User: Fold these one by one.
Assistant:
Number 1:
Amino acid sequence: MAKAEYSVLGTSIPRMGGVERVAGAGIYGIDLVLPDAVRGGVLRSQYAHATIKSIDTSEAESLPGVYAVVTAEDAPDVKYGRTSNDRYMLARGKVRYMGDPVAAVAADSEATLKKALKKIKVEYEPLPVVLDAEAAMKADAPALHEEIPLPANLPKDTRVKNVCGYSTLHVGDPDRAMAEADLVVEETYETKMVHPQYLEPRIAATRHEADGRLTVWVNAQAPFGVRSEVSKLLKIPISGIRVLVTEIGGGFGGKATGTHSSAGLEPICALLAIKAKKPVMMVLDKAEETVSTTVRAPVKVWIQTGVNKDGTIVARKAKLIFDAGAYSGFGALAGSRCTQMLAGWYRTPNAHVDGYIVYTNKQVCGPVRGPGGPQAAFPVESHMDSIAAKLGMDPVEFRLKNIPKPGERIAGVPKLRDVSLGETIRVAAEKIGWGKVKLEKNQGVGIATGSWIEGSGPGGGAVVKINEDGTAAVLIGKVDYGTAPRFGIPMIVAEELGIPTDDVTVLNVDTDASPWDAGTVGSRSTLVAGNAARLAAIDARNQLLRMAAKQLEASSDDLEIKDRQIRVKGTPVKALALAAVATAAHNEIGEVIGRGYFDSKAVEAEEKEKGSSPPFTSHAAIVEVDPDTGNVKILKYVAVHDVGFVIHPQAVEGQIEGATAMSIGQALCEQVLFDDKGKTLNPTFVDYLMPTWNMIPKIETVLIKGYPGAGPYGTKGAGEIGCVPPPAAIANAICNAVGVRLTSLPLSPENVLRAIREQKGVEP
Amino acid sequence: MSLNIRLVVNGRRHTAKINPATSLLDFLRDTLGYKGVKICCNTGECGACTILFNGKPVNSCVVLAADAAGAEIVTVEGLAEGDRLHPVQQAFIDTGAVQCGYCTPGFIISVKALLDRTKNPTAEEIEEAVSGNICRCTGYTKIVDAIQIAAERLQARS
Ligand code: FES
Ligand code: FES
């Protein structure tokens, strides 16, 4: 379909920037070499909760080779935060988790730096630590942020503590519907903290330029967020800060929320550079990263569903306790998404969900790939199988029975336009051999579905400049870390301009030159930058055609750009070289510069009227459980997705496969562990287990021809939704294999074995 | 204390004075400037820093530079012939196996070492060759394709 309508869209061209990457020539943040730069490092709290009595930096300062030592005293008294300003870039008076930055040093070498950090004397007065979110809500829990009021929207007479966000959902009359249901099923579920563990360590580098401005290099997903936060925290005007993005070795939302996700690394680096009067480069090592940067938050969920005998869902009630960590971070936003999703994406006429987002003395919640999604889908989709079992119904049939119809609402989507959920279920069932595949002993098959609300968010712009040789340079505010900016975006610009993709360059973000953007988050690269780049390319094309029309004495409507020429359609002899027209622009309009803007408000308004078609997915797995060790091996895995129109199939599949594998990691092995004092027990890759080659089967991705989304040409976001179904799909397959329902992640050998033994009544 | 070593990297001779505690990874990256060798875990767990050490893939973060005295090292920068990429490099691009690309140099070296040994690797041999390389972006699926295509192309060549 794509081939006929379009010249490049729908094909899988080689990724832009691929050659540099395979040749080892891409310059990532960690590869930066700044002349004359010194090394910066952070002293982090040794307590998960304590007041700071005093900090003595004198010994560190007097060490030879030390250029600067900074504490909160050196910075303006300004807090930052997303939903609540509850955090300082360097701890002031109190620390709330073991990764909290307390002081920082700039020194001539790594060795001096380490020595100096050790010489900083901090006197702490330890406070009681609370690591469990449910416990933190109780009256006797220590208060983490005495000064922060409870959320204004909490229902009256809710007696809770340490709650930094509350989200709720109410439809119909769930109390009554639950009371009248034929069957009520109630369960509790739990997920654990995981770290995104992108491979390239987080860096920051800053140079205080001769003209007084600051240049900040980051490998962050939200350069404009970094700029505004550095400006706010150091009280430097926006105009005084330039943020440059390097190549980025993975992010997954872990490098996303401005300075939040880095625990203030960039402003600390800037503060050091100003005080040291030297460029400063900071690199987090992996262990430091695990303890200090943002994570996928752990949750506890109580879920209850009322169904009729025929399998119709009539009511859902749920309660979520979402562990935000030491600061609000992205917690309230991810927690609210999770709250909404607990109502499920099936037809549920009556529902009530309460979501409490709670402070604890641990790492802070960030917008990690599909924030809130897997934490909601693990309970929801495991629960669907539990209900089906109680009803004596087939899990696929039960799900198909409850597919919402166009015009209806599901949580987070007030009005559905088209619903591809059922189609994804049918295709996944067929591909996995549902009901047909012959399973050996201890093998099982499972299915789970998902949806992802393409959260509304700010718009974003694009600029397409036509060089005098007829090539195009594209400026957008999104960054490339294996996502749309260097896969789909150059294709969109090439398509609209009628030029080869090789003639398109997409530049790295430079906040002095690139259009503002909220950050490469929320599966929104193609939606925002793709729509904007398309309009910018069309604008540039129109300018070129108007200029050519005069010379060719033709109407610009009759012209096309092809083979690096502008020519009269059907009369290819009447043509001008594209380069000649672009060059002539110098004396007519200066340069052909196309502008485009993604108008998120207009999309929202349209969706309000006509409804929206969110992406849906179904994953199905066959697993084998070793009953003696509890080890789970995935034998086959199918991921079926409706992501609307597909610009670059290979890239979209790659996003889905990557998200799926990451979520399989959360399902089977990943977990940040703590001792009772709040110390992370497994900060390095030696102990933090992640999926390696042998754990991930070859994922069979099927992109069904879905319904158009709000992206250019009808695309939908594809970067996160793959994370949603895997934990439940695997848990359901395990249950099918050995008959035990695991309600807590990870589904590790230890936990699976314990569940099997408990079920058999054997002492674990 | 310092130590003089000689070694060959990507066919070029180097002589350098090193601190005996320096890892081969830091030496290659910071002293000689081979930034294509990536640093991640620094504990031998992720394979981002994989290089060929006398023809064998090793994690350079857990080897001392001193132990590379007299050795022949190949990094990802040494695979292409002029503008012509090595078939393994090309296969990674063609199959979409390069997302962020941070694991890519290490992966490519591990796969090259494998295909130097055998042009027709079994699934087990592949698993063994790359089990020390972590990719966080691709879910490995496109890398499976890359290895297969690279093997086919190398077979066709010989
Ligand atoms: S950096 Fe050497 S194995 Fe990870
Ligand atoms: S491509 Fe990013 S880690 Fe492999």
Number 2:
Amino acid sequence: MPLIPAALVNLALPLTRPLAAFLREDVFDYYGRLLHPQLQLRRVFARLKARRLEGEATVVLTLSPSRNWRGFRAGQHVAVTLEKDGVRHTRRYSPMRAANGRIEIAIKRLKEGLVSSLLHEEADSIGYLEIGQAEGDFVLPDTLPPRLLFLAAGSGITPILAMLRELKARGYQGELNLLYYGRQRNQMAYLDELRAYPGLHLHVCLTGEQAQAGEQAGRFSAAQLDALVPKAEGSAVFACGSHGFTEAVQAVWQQRGWQGLACESFTPPTWHLEDDKPVTLTFARARRQLAGRTGGTLLEQAEAHGLKPASGCRMGICNTCTCQKREGAVRDLRTGEISTKPDETIRLCITAPVGNVVLDL
Amino acid sequence: MSKSLSLNPDQLAAFGAELDALRNRHLAELGEADARYIRRVRASVRITELAGRLMLFAGFFPPTWCLGVLLLAFSKIVDNMELGHNVMHGQYDFMNDPEFSGKHFEWDHSCTSDAWRRTHNYQHHTYTNVLGKDHDIGYGTVRIFAEQRWRPFYLLQPLWALLQAVFFEYAIAVFDLKLDRYLRGRAKLSELKVKAPPVLRKLWRKFIKDYVFFPLIAGPHWLAVLAGNAVANLLRNLWTFTVIFCGHFTEDAEVFPLSVLKDETRGGWYVRQLRGSSNLSGSRWLHFLTGNLSHQIEHHLFPDIPARRYASMAVEVREICQRYGQHYNTGSFAGQFFTVLVRLFRHAFPSRPAMQPV
Ligand code: FES
């Protein structure tokens, strides 16, 4: 039970900001946490307000973030962190606007998804969740175009729905089309809300079961697009789904030389067991992409390309080369273990890529 | 003279493989228990610091003042050793918790954590007890091995060591700057201009905190608080100095020439760590208050495994060492420290290394 009320904490939070220059953040946060989970200098904890099911496979959490949160633009994503067995796990979800300054995140249950199953099964025991600041440039432009086309597959619907809610709030009057792909009808989230959305041309496309009246069958294709949205050319387009899905969309736009396509995709990392396969290494902060190979240490490969990440012992003991891996599959060369977790701490000198890797460097 | 057998390359490889297996077994087990442990350690640091400082505010009333000093000293010792030193090795990086991230942890010590990570985690742990590479050998002020070149300066080294013990945190803080190089004209002053500011900033911050800020807010009891903070810092300095000098400077600890680094294998590295380090035997409290540096050998073999596991790892390490004929250097705190003092006085005077077996 927090010792002080949330309202008071959130009034006080902006006032603590000047303290940041004098205090050690972890010390302030330690004592703050004893009084109230949201009393933190910079970190954001969101109170879990409600939880409901959308379709059969998606749980929607309503969250009320502390005032340390700087808000978001529809379509962006936030890191959500949960702890399990002493280890914190981070996944990214797209927040959507809900009533009273709250936000919603929708979590689709994945077969082997650790965080998603935690959020499905143990959400009732969670009082507060840590979330990050919003990131990403998959967002609506400031001046809205006359025609908007959205293409969503599976849980790719969440940033799109966030945009639709925002459009409604901004009183958008233009033409709105949405092609929404899913394997089975009852697994698709937010169908009721979308059907009731005024002025939205919704096309539900099923890839894994028989289509009924008013529904389409089959994966995204140029022919299907032409049949459903004759005026697709010239629309501003937002596509979100698995990597394969956005690639298929991109291919059509490229082939036809159309403009105005923005894509966002999520794909579980894939990996090779053999050494010496080509992979892409992305150094996010340096904004560089390098051609790498599986099996060699990340440190050596980065250096071979002229980058100079901090290093010392080069044998995994000094902790100098430690950095965050944002995503990708890597192997720990000491134990041989392969890890595909997003946002985890690794040491460059004893870690080899086994697939494409994005580093926070 | 080494008390350990020398191993042939095959034996070295097998020795290293056994230690690697031990390490991987523990790596695989990391989880909940370790996370809960380090959070409790952190709680003990924060709570005792708060309690200690509050008690000092009560002024020079002897019982609360003494208790306040002890609590504060306890807090600083645990912060530096069981919490800071271990966290900065990345032992708890597996938690993915920014507050226990080895790269970002900040401690209650005048030495900046960045400098510490460089001199300690990298130089000292990689080149342990290699002459000319591991600057922790004698910390540039004392000669404890016959292999170090003698200079007249060392004649007074018992005094230098005492001064260093009293001001240990400052000694460590400026250690990384290697000031003697500038005095001897071996390095350019412009380099110092870059390296000094962060060190000075941290020194200044710690100084303001303990000797200006807290005395000021204590109002009339400022002197009690000021004195209390000074004594707590002194206790911490003496304790950490003693523990650290017992880690590599005991009678049986060995130093190595630069040539060992050439083509050193993993097994060779393990052997060097083992021979250069020494343990302290004692109660659970001793292990806790030394931040498990009482298990210096295990710490040097496995610097990134949570220190709470060293006690149980030590049983297996000893057994492995015995099978390979390697001396496992351990003894009581007093006994080990005594041998350090003997070295300190003996090598103040010119001395020659004993013949090494070829
Ligand atoms: S360089 Fe020392 S741990 Fe990687």
